[in-house]
Amino acid sequence: MSRLPEVEIGVFGGSGFYELLDNPKEFKVSTPFGPPSSPVMVGEIGGRSVAFLPRHGKEHTLPPHMINFRANVWAMKDLGVTRIIGPNACGSLQRHVEPGHFVICDQFVDRTSGRKDTFYDGPITTHISSADPYCPTMRQVAIDTAVDLGITAHPTGTVVVIQGPRFSTRAESKWFAAQGWEVINMTQYPESYLARELEMCYVNISLITDFDAGMEGIAPVTNDEVIRVFNENNSRVKSLIFDMIPRLPANRTCVCATALEGAAF
């Protein structure tokens, strides 16, 4: 088996992202939590070492509730990754957040159930703050890069994470929208929080593919529509990531890097 390389930046995305990498190589990574969704592809972007891992598997065979999030995040950590970019397709809960827009989320609300969502099952009790779950440094880089590329990106937003694989009922969607939340998704939790538990920085890039079911006068979301809009905008997601990576500062001074300080009892 090939010796694992040292990698700086990780991206959870689909196989279409591999084309961004210079001289990509595939590595199989084993973890204490089982196998990740697929082998990891490692290469370079803008002189920075980057690892890509498709969270749903190479052939998109893993539905959201079956993803081994702990294995995926641990595999990144095992490679030496300190920063993770997490793009995903999302629905909108507010009319001003339109399909084709991006949202750089700053908060999440967890509505999942039964997911393995911590690395710290004891015997040492560990409580890590998730008050501000996304890296402020990476968020600002994403926002600034989107502005430079002419991409409509909302600089804040709350994503409510549902269990899946079903979409929301109209009643659920209206409830979420009434809270003022902007985005709905099935994979942001526990992926983003698990990165914080391992003191890795994480930024979410939500590509809005549809209005959710609670929006009056708009047909309920379908999987075909999500895929169509995502494919139409996939090149912009890749452009944003490609331009972001060289801009990330070499040193980390954010709260993510010291998340475990004082967390254990």
Description:
The chain contains five helices and eleven strands, in the order E-E-E-E-H-E-E-E-H-E-E-H-E-H-E-H. With 265 residues, it is α/β, with parallel strands linked by helices. It has a single domain (9-258), classed as 3-Layer(aba) Sandwich (Rossmann fold), CATH 3.40.50. Strands 1, 2, 3, 4, 5, 6, 7, 8, 9, 10 and 11 form an eleven-stranded mixed beta sheet that branches. Strand 3 and strand 4 (48-53) form a beta hairpin.
Strand content: 15-25%
- State the helix count: 5
Q: Which structural class best describes the helix and strand composition?
A: alpha/beta
- The appropriate CATH architecture is 3-Layer(aba) Sandwich
Domains, number: 1
- For the CA atoms, what is the radius of gyration? 18 Å
Low-pLDDT segments, ≥5 res: none
| CATH fold-level name | Rossmann fold
Distance between the termini: 39 Å
Could you name the CATH class?
Alpha Beta
- Assign a percent range to the helix content: 10-25%
Summarize model confidence as the mean pLDDT: 91
Number of strands: 11
